[in-house]
Structure formats: C-alpha cells, structure tokens
Design a protein that fits this description.
Helix 1 runs parallel beside helix 2. This protein starts with a strand and ends with a helix. It has an eight-stranded parallel barrel with strand order 1-2-3-4-5-6-7-8, surrounded by five helices. It is of the alpha/beta class. It has nine helices and eight strands. The chain has one domain: TIM Barrel (Alpha-Beta Barrel), CATH 3.20.20. It binds phosphoenolpyruvate. The site of phosphoenolpyruvate has 14 residues, from strand 8.
Amino acid sequence: MSKIVVANWKGKITTEADAVALARGSDREGMVICPPHAFLDDVGAALSHASLGAQDYAPDLAVRGATYVIIGHSDRRREGETDDVIAEKLALAVSDGLVPVLCVGEVRAERDLGQTHEVLKRQIATALSRITMGHPSIFIAYEPVWAISTTPGAELANPTDVAHTIAFIEKEVLHGGYPAVVSYLYGGSVTASTALGFLEKKDILGLLVGGASLNEKEITTIWQQAQEA
Ligand code: PEP
C-alpha cells in the first residue's frame, strides 16, 4: 500500500522559477505540493501527477486548481489563529470540495506538563465541530510543535510514541462520531533518513514534510519509501 506525502514549502521558495523547478522535480502520483499562495497557478500548471495543495484556506483555492489545503498549521496558531477560526476554515474548505489537512499538536511546555492528550482533544473537538454532513475525506496531521524543524531546539519524535498518540487521536475522532472519513499523517523534522520509522507504523498513512520537501533528492527518497510502505 502506498502512503501520501504532503510537501509544505512554507515561505522558503521565493521565485516563480524556483517554484516551477521544484514542482517539476517533485511531480509524482501520491505527492501533494503546497507552495506559497502566490505560486499556486505556476505550480499547478507544472504538475501532471502530483496534487496541488495550499498552505492555508482562501476562497479562491478550488478555482486555482488546489484540491488539498493545510489548516491550523502551528505557524498560524502561533500568529493567534484560534480553534474556532480553524473550525470555520475547515468547514469552508469542505464546502468548497477541498480535502483539509488539519494540523494538531502540542507545544513543548504542554508536553512537559503532561497535557498532550488534553490539548489534542480540544483541538480536534473544536476543529471538527462544524462538519455537519457529507462524510468528507479529511487528513489529520499530528505535528508536535517541539518536533518541527523550525522550532528552536527541535527534537526528533519517536515513531512508537507518535503511533500511540495517533491511536489516541483516532479514538477521540471515533468517539466524537464526526461525519467524516479521517486518515492520519505525521509531520515534524521528517527527512529521508527518518521517514521509514514513521511510514512503518500502520496507523500513519503518510507524512507532512516541511524543510526536507525543499530538496528534490530528499523528497524523492521520502516519496519512494512512502510508495513501498
Ligand atoms: C511543518 O512545518 O509542517 C513541518 C512538518 O516542517 P518540518 O518537516 O521542517 O519539521
């Protein structure tokens, strides 16, 4: 069974030429490429196999060819985006026919205080609360903020711990009875040398990759591993 790889370029690609070159080099079935908003059209035109995604909800995504959208990324939460705003964006994305990739995860202080489950429970319950019908497909990406490469002092998460946390999220989603079909991803400092440990876990159905997605060789190796997982 092949697993999905979502590439979040964040703001690191700053020219159209670089965006198109990286899109061509990453253009594979099973990849979702999320360029900065400004390059959606150019990247969309460069892709024949990969899907186009956006890094945040906007009303024009579907008409610009995006089929996926990242919602609730920790960069946005850090800028003050609340669970309620995330819930609203998620509902809008679903009604636009997009597949949301909802990011959830605790910060280091919450982990150290033993609050991980409590934080995830709240993030999920609010984010999914406005889906009232339709059974849309949704991805939930568990991204512990302390493991994201841009977090100062980022630590590598342990795949077994991640699998346990994803099992907890899965239980919460089942318990909530939300009318959605949910699949689970992991994100946080994944590279070609660490991807397999996560991909080997049966409940992790793919990866959300930030920094390593900017390197063609690295993301291709991760994609190959996801194909064989
Ligand atoms: C992210 O920012 O969503 C992410 C997973 O980044 P990185 O892979 O660089 O930790």
